Amino acid sequence: MVAAEVTEIRCKSLINRVNAPDFHFRWTINPYRGCRHACRYCYARSTHEFWGMDSGVDFDRQIFAKVNAPAVLRQELSRPKWCGEPIAIGTASDPYEPAEAQYALTRKILEVLVEFRNPASVTTKGTLVRRDMDVLRRLHETAGAQVVFSIGTIDETVWRQTEPGAPHPMARLEAMQYLVEHGVPAGVLAAPLLPGLSDSTASIDALVSAAAEHRAQFLSSNLLFLRPGSREWFMPLIRESYPHLAPGYARLYRSEHAPQDYTGAVLALVDDARLRWELPRMPSVKSLRPATLPGFADAATSQRGMPLAEPEPNAPTQLSLPLAA
User: Fold this and answer.
1) Which residue, of 122, 178, 254, 324, has the greatest Cβ tally within 10 A?
2) Residue 207 in contact with residue 277, Cβ under 8 Å?
3) Who wins on pLDDT, 313 or 36?
4) Domains and CATH numbers, the chain
5) Residue 95 CB coordination number (10 Å)
6) Residue 321 has what pLDDT?
7) What is the rounded average pLDDT of the residues 223-230?
8) What is the SS3 assignment for 52?
């Protein structure tokens, strides 16, 4: 775990509106700022710059806990204008950042959401989410809930280099399976897929098959994108640890996103694997519904682990923008 200093702060508001029509959620909550998972590519790193800190070491080691978050949330959900729309928890900082073991802010937030019967989705790399299985199940039964585990690869070397403070990918899959087996919808967001490191047919199929074998109920994916703040922290890792990939990254990431044809080719590989392993796409946060609706019981108890068709072994994949110089 990355050593860190946790500072207690008080927030004036907690629910944030997302003004982006293409997002699958409209409202977000982040109980913490900064994250000891220390993912080199994290798109939220620039948020620390708003406070006069750097997006590198400070983001990993200067953690802020919004200690009054549950009380503020109760006030906001009590307002007559609030319509009970689904909320995404953990869009800018992991809600199961190690500080959660001490502060339990995420758990208290979930308890408030149960009280108000307000649906929510949690995105995390943390395994501490297992602790909150009981409240997550109550939330799903009364309002609708899901837990999304962010896992971009199960490769040991890539994980250690790019997510040095995050739990092992297999530990995340085991936590996901635990939730599913106890009635909490959970699945995998295969993200970010890293060009040249985790975007091959073999790497993607290894991740998708492991997700299916651990009873994921859904799977979606995203390719790496590099915002200011994360670019300056991630690209040196590529130059130092994978110098043969550096020219390709420079070409792919002239802007924040890789070219559409390259991105589309990688995501198509994920869709092929997802269909072979009979995994549906991740539901939109906006579509969350209580567990009392038909179909949940079947989904929660379904057995997966056998693909529809065996993948062609070691099949070469030619993407439209190869990384090799």
Assistant:
1) 122
2) no
3) 36
4) 5-301 (3.20.20.70)
5) 25
6) 43
7) 92
8) coil
Kindly tell me the sign of the dihedral angle through the C-alpha atoms of 164, 170, 173, 178: negative
Tokens 């994916």 appear where?
221
User: For residue 52, with 0-12 CB atoms within 10 Å meaning exposed, 13-18 middle and 19 or more buried, which class applies?
Assistant: exposed
Q: How many residues can be counted in the chain?
A: 325
Q: Is 50 exposed, middle or buried (0-12, 13-18, 19+ CB in 10 A)?
A: exposed
Give the pLDDT confidence of 74-99 residue by residue, as tens digits.
999 999 999 999 999 998 899 999 99
Q: Which amino acid is at 239?
A: R
Burial class of 119 by CB neighbour count within 10 A (0 to 12, 13 to 18, 19+) = buried
Structure confidence at residue 304 as a pLDDT band (50, 70, 90):
very low
What is residue 4's predicted lDDT score, i.e. its pLDDT?
A: 78
Sole residue written with tokens 């269909």: 275
Q: Strands 87-89 and 120-124: what pairing?
A: parallel
Torsion of CA 9, 10, 11, 12, to 10 degrees: -150
DSSP for residue 75: H
Widest distance between CA atoms in the chain: 59
